[in-house]
Fold this protein.
Amino acid sequence: MLIWDRLVRSWHWCLVAVVVANYWFLEGGDDLHNYAGYALFALMTLRLGWGIWGRNPYALFVNFVPTPAAIRQHLNDLRSGVKEHPAGHNPLGALFIYFVFLSIAYLSITGWLHEEVDALFGNDFLQNTHRWVSDALMIGAGIHITGVLVMQKLTGTPLIKTMITGKR
C-alpha cells in the first residue's frame, strides 16, 4: 500500500539535507546559509500546499490532527502493548510535524528580518531566538529519529523503508 507519495518523500529528504547543511556546515549570515533558509521556506510552502490541496490522504493535514484525546489514546495503546500502527502519522508524529512547520516558519522569518531589514541587523533578540529555535529543531530531530526507531521496533512497521519507498 502506498503511504507516502513521491512529493512527500522528496520533501522529507530535501528538508533533512537543507536543515542539516544549514545547521552543521553553513556559516550563519553567509549567502549560502541565507539561500538555504529561503529554500527551507520554499519547501515549507510546497508542503503546506500539498497538505491542504494534495491528493494523498495520508499527507493531508486534516487527516492527522494531534488532539489531546488522540495523543492520550496513542500513549495508552503503547502502554498496553497495542501493536497496530495507523497508516500515516501517529498523533505524536503529527505533533512533531507541526513543531517542524512552526520552527521553520520562525527561522525563516527571523533570518529574513535579521538579514534584510537594516534596522534589525545585529538585533540580539532575533539572533538569540533564531539560534535557540534552530537548536530546538535539532533536538526535535533527534527525538523524531529516536521515536521512529522505537515505533519501528514496537510495532514491526518498517517506517524508515516506508519513507524511502513510500510503500508499507
About this structure: The chain has a mean pLDDT of 94. The two ends are 6 Å apart (CA to CA).
